[in-house]
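Hey, can you fold this?
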Amino acid sequence: MSHGTLAETLSPPRAEAHPERAEAILDLARSAFVEKGFDGASMQDLARAAGMSVGNFYRYFPSKAALVEALIARDLAEVESAFLAITTSADPLAALKGALAERLTRNCEEDAPLWAEIMASAARKPDIADLLRRMEEGVQARIVRVLGLVAALPEDEAARRFGAHVRIVFMLVRGAALDRPAGQAADPDLNALILRTIDRLLDDVLAGAEEG
């Protein structure tokens, strides 16, 4: 029986009904991704890492795409919490720049290679590509929201004025994280250059908004 057929014949996923158990399974399955790679880890490998039968594993996560979706949902929850702190701070722009600087210097030795593989897989798998696109759009929308708050603009106008600049900021931060070789610390000179570039981009676009 193929995996797809097995997934279709089982009852609906139980991740929503048992979020704590699903979270624990996700952490264990992630270790198999890190060890074997996103494409190299089979569903059997993931189930084995979680200490479950394949059939029971499918009830929580019926596909790799479902696992990626859960990883993205968890990351976006953390992003939402971070951006709530930014938007409620006394200086949202400074808080945003500080969060971007922290993201650049964060130790992501395990996560970066995994996400690099997931992004490579997205070039071949439309469902993974769609999940990543939604994640990227979610992060970028939150940065736009902060800039709109600083410039006192509604979100639709902020998106029109700042959207392209925010995409560049996102690409700079993401590229720095994913390009870092495994086991290698962040390059402080490169990070300083990226942060100066981001500062200039944000300051310029906000100055333009004030003039407009």
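Oh, and this one too while you're at it.
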Amino acid sequence: MKRIRVLIIEDSRVIRELLAHLIGQDPRLEVAGSVGSAEEALDLLCRVSPGVISMDIRLPGMNGFEATRRIMAQRPTPIVVVSASVESEDLNITMNALRAGALSVVEKPVGTAHADYEALAERLCTQLAIMSQVRVVRQRFAPARAAVVASPARKWKPGSFRAVGIAASTGGPNALAKLLGEWPPDFPLPILLVQHLTASFVEGFVSWLDSACPFTVEIARDGELPLPGRVYVAPPDRHLQLAGGALQVDGGEMVCFQRPSGTVLFRSLARSLGPRALGVLLTGMGEDGAAGLLEIRQAGGYTLAEDESTAVVYGMPAAAVRQGAACESLPLPAIGPRVLELIAQDQEP
């Protein structure tokens, strides 16, 4: 079987050697190159033609975010961010790299004597192997758009919809920033969100998303009453549900190998709200969310799945379409406006 060629970008020589060793030990992978800076990587990229890139974030000179932007603009290649830091600056760089086109973020493997070494090494190699199969496209970056400002003339009237649930996985941070950016700050529903992400990066993701969209974004708390125009993110390794009008956070069994699970969130919306629930399933690998989205539709709620034309990974939305769970399948730029249309149609006179 042909091995997947990996380009390692890591400024620490010791970590580069460690990554090269564990990648070389994996029968799915081989090291195509190993460099200590983004500038070296850009020079090497066309010559070695890697199938996937292992990208450190804190690099001398050009950081991982800028490197991701350049790579996705010049020679699109699947990128897995490998980071050991949960400091705010590094987390912000990491999340911006995901928005720029990197596919996922994993924790950097620690020394071979560490108890977590085997698990972290396996996770990294598996991510590299899986993400190498993702079709990536050239990214063009427009100037940053000004923050959305609510029109004082707009007054949302309460309709029958009571909440919108969103689930996303691979490619989700970028998709979420675009989707939420389509909605005004006076959006009339609470937004409940499941994003599959390594637990140690969830707080950084929440902080980044708060700065990238017009809403207050926070980690959901058990028993909290959700408010309109706020985004409630499932905590690390906890399911997020709506029960009796309040948020419920728990450590139940994994569903579709995920905790938090989009299916668990959607099922709770179907039970609690029935036809008053809106469900949105975005890009992601696997099938999480599809069964729960179907339950919302069967309960009379409205469901949207991202179309294959824009999904970074079409696995989760595709499962929803196969199961008949999606009322509509739309490209990402059309989902935000469609939700606003549905809410407007649903308003009472």
